[in-house]
Amino acid sequence: MWYEILFRVLSIINYAILILIAIPLLIQILYVAFSFVKKKTYPKSEVKGRIAFLIPAYNEEDVIYDTVKSVIDKQNYPRDKFDVFVVADNCTDRTAELAEKAGAIVLIHNDPDPAHHMALYPLKYGIDHIINLTENPYDLVIHLDADNHINADFASLMNDAYQSGVEFARPYEGALNATQNFYTKACSLFYAFDSRFGSRVRERLHLSAHVDGSGATMSVALLKRTHGYDAETVADDAEYSLNRMIEGVKGHFVEDAIVYQDSPSTFKDTAARNRRIGNGVMHLMKSRAGEMIKTFFKTGNFSLLEMLSMYMLNFLNVIIAIWLPLYYVYHFLYLGFAAYGTMELTLYSPEFYKSLLWGTIIVGAAILVALFIFFGYIQALILVITDYKKLGAEKRSQLLSAVFLFPAFLIVYAVTLCRGAVSKPKKWQKIKRNVPNNNV
Are 98 and 59 in contact (CB under 8 A)? Predict the structure, then answer.
């Protein structure tokens, strides 16, 4: 009967989708399995390059003074070898005044085009300014967000990597407010996954790091070769990293350099951040996936396939959130009627469908439990045990509650990324800051 044929066709399609979903999940399992390999370190250098910290800021008067002051006062690096630049982008508050008071070099960027109201454009403006300076030129540009703090050895560690030949690098991503509430704990754990697991293993396997967040470090020589910051989309950091990977420039992971970020503290803030990420990465994947595959076959650069598999998770979130629920409602309804109803069958007997129904329930439940245990508990527990200080906690017990509730957060994460993947990006808006007083 036609409905039996339809069931078989949809089952085959579902098997293919499950295989696609399994590829990045298996890679993540491998990353966790090998995450205890020795981290990469760089020899201490006596040569100190000149560093420009660059902070694009839109109405950030609440946090910009503390951020700039923290960088200037707390770095274990010669003060005459680094400066902090703040690009005040279309600001209507005291961002520029407070940044200058804290010791930053302030660049004013006013762009009336609504389409340019995103971090990309002040970042481009600041980089162009820095790399074109002829008096006391800089060697490195380190991009920070307006709420970021960094550990005291950040500049020194990035300089050590640079003096060892690294032109492009990312740090470990920690959190300023990891222990504030459940959302900040869960977000802090999630964003640390790629640092503790993915980035460390990529570095040891000689794959390129994903340099797509706060603390991204670029040599001025590299930026000059790329004619500045050659990104064009809302996912500018991921795009710049991908451009370098396609060109064969390897991104590195400097694990002991830590950038502490403000994690979202409410569902609304978590959803808003994930929507931006989901939209940007989805656009990048749709526009560049073919180029990534083509370049892989030309160069044999496995970093491109690895990055593509990670980007696939964003696309697969849409499938997971839409296809899987709809398909399995249909799947169980069909099997239920075929096994226990009065449906006319020509291809298989009711006993076959009865066996398939219970087999699907048992196998599906086992897979879901295993995924929840591994991705929901084991990864989070490892992070809490090994990296709680990098995450911004003083005690492991401060983060344990997030471990038990982490599977629920992953569901929220997948759904909000899916929403972002199918929506349009919004302009750069002021973000609610939740950073408590701290001594990071």
Answer: no
